[in-house]
Amino acid sequence: MGRVTRASGKFPYLLMVTFAAVAIVALIAGTRTVTAGRAYVEVPSGVVVGGMTAEEHIQRQIDQTGRLMKDLPSASQLKQVRVNFGRDEIDAVDQTDKSSTPLKIGLVKAMTPALEVSGLDRGAAGPRQGTADEALRTRDGGYVWAASVSSDQAGAIRLHIEKLSLPKGGELYVYSRGGESYGPYKGTGVDDSGEFWTPAVFGRETIVQVRLSGAASLHEVSFRIAEIGIITEKNVGGLIPAPEAPGFCGNPTCIVDASCYAAANSIRDAYAKEEWIAGAFIYTCTGAVLNDSNPSSANYLLTANHCYSKNSNAKNVDFYWRFRTSSCNGSCPSNSGWPYKTHGASVAATNRRGDFTLVSLTQALPAGTVRLGFTNAPVANTNGVALHRVSNPNFGPQVYNEQTVNTSAPTCSGWPRGERIYSHDTLGGTDGGSSGSPVVNASDQVVGQLSGACGTNVNDPCDNTNNATVDGALAFYWSSVQPFLAP
C-alpha cells in the first residue's frame, strides 16, 4: 500500500495586545507507573485558572478599535491600497485536493508596488521619495497615519511587515472597522527583527495605523508592506455542503459535531485550529496544549511535523481557541466572528520520524484552557486500546471521533508500527485540517498526534474498512520531548 497523508484527516493565533492577567495553571506533578517491569511517565491534565475570557478578549479589541477610529483620517486623507486576485488564483485554493498536506486555505501575493513608509514628516522639499504621505495631527497633540489595504476576494487579510522601525512614542496597529484589532507593535516589532506577519483580520479590508506621541520623531518612522496573504471567502464562511454529502457544517457525512458528545467535554478546551503562512500559501492544521511537570511552566502545544517544523513558520501561526458550535448540531460558526485567537510560537522539538512538532506558545492562553495530560506508555502494539480526539477539519468547527488500535492493519511505507499507531475509527472521523490533532486514551492522556491515513481508499475519509487512521506515537519520540515536558 502507498503511504498517504491526508492533510488532516488525517492531516490536515500574534495577538499583540499585552495581557494584563497572567495565566496560572493547575499543575500536578507527574507520576511513574510500572508495567511489566518498565517505568512510564504519566502527567495528568491541568486547567488554566487565570487569563482573559473570550468575552474580555473581544471587548478589549472592540474598545481598542473605537479609540483608533476616533483618529482615523478621512477617506480623502486615507492611503488606499487595493489588491486583486484572479479567479484562477482563488480556485487553486478552493478546489485543492483535500488529500494534499497540509490543507491550503489561502494564498500570498506580492503587493506591486509595495507600500513603503520612510518618514512621516513633510519637510521643506515636500514628501520624501517612497513615503506614503505625512502624518496628521490628532486632538491630543500627537500624530496619526493610516492606510486601508483591501481585496474584494478576501475573507481575511494578513500583511507582511518588513523593516519596521518606530521611534519612542510610536505604535503600529492593524484592525477592521468591525472591531477586530491587534497591536501595539513598537520599536522593531515582535522579536526585534523588524519583520513579521500580522494576524488575520477578517473581512475584505485591513487598516494599518501608526500613532505617535507629540514628542515622537516623525522622520524615524519606517517600514514596508510588500506581501498580502488572504484566506479565501469560502474558508472563512465555512464549507457549502455538497448535495450528495450534506454532513455536519459541510464536512463528509461521517464527521460529527464535538458539541454532541460528553466524552469530548473534558478535552475540547485544549484544542486549537492553526493557520499559518509558508511560501505562497496559507495552511491549516490542529494542535492541543499539553500539561507538564517542568517548573518553567511554558505553554507547550503538540501538532504534526508535516504541518510545520520551522521557527519561521511557527512565528506566524494563528491559534483559534474553542472554535465550535454552541450546542449539538447548532448553527455553524463563522471565522468572521473572530473568536479568541492568539499568535506565534517557537519550535521546542520536531522530527519527521514520529511526525511531531512541539512548540512553546508566545502568548497567554485563554482562561479555562485545558492542558492535556500524557503518558509515554506505548499503545501501538496493544490491540483494541480505545482512543479519542477533537480536531478542526476544513478550517471549521470542532469535531469528535473515536478509534481503537488495530495491530493487524497493514502498514504504509515509511510509517512502521511502533513509530506510528494504527487504528480504525469507530465513531466520527477526521479530514483535511485535522492533522496534528493529539489523540488521547480513556484517561484523556495524550499518546500521539494525527499523521494521516493509510489504506486503499484514503480519498474517502469515511471509509474505515479500507483505511486506517495513523498517529505519530509519543512513546517513540519521548526522548525528544521529555526535556521540555518532564525534565
Describe this structure in words.
With 487 residues, this protein is mainly beta. The chain has two domains: 3-55 and 239-485, Beta Barrel (Thrombin, subunit H), CATH 2.40.10.120; 67-235, Sandwich (Jelly Rolls). It has helices at 54-69, 87-94, 233-237, 311-314, 474-485; strands spanning 3-4, 31-35, 38-43, 46-47, 79-82, 103-118, 136-137, 143-150, 154-165, 170-175, 181-185, 196-197, 201-202, 205-212, 222-232, 256-257, 271-278, 281-290, 300-303, 318-321, 341-343, 345-351, 356-361, 370-371, 373-375, 386-391, 399-405, 420-428, 438-440, 445-455, 467-473. Strands 6, 9, 12, 13, 15, 17, 18, 19, 20, 21, 22 and 23 form a twelve-stranded antiparallel beta sheet that branches. Strands 1, 2, 3, 16, 25, 26, 27, 28, 29, 30 and 31 form an eleven-stranded mixed beta sheet that branches.
In short, what is this structure?
The protein is mostly beta strands and 487 residues long.
Characteristic key phrases:
12-stranded antiparallel beta sheet; 487 residues; mainly beta; single chain; 11-stranded mixed beta sheet; 5 helices; Jelly Rolls; disordered N terminus; Thrombin, subunit H; globular
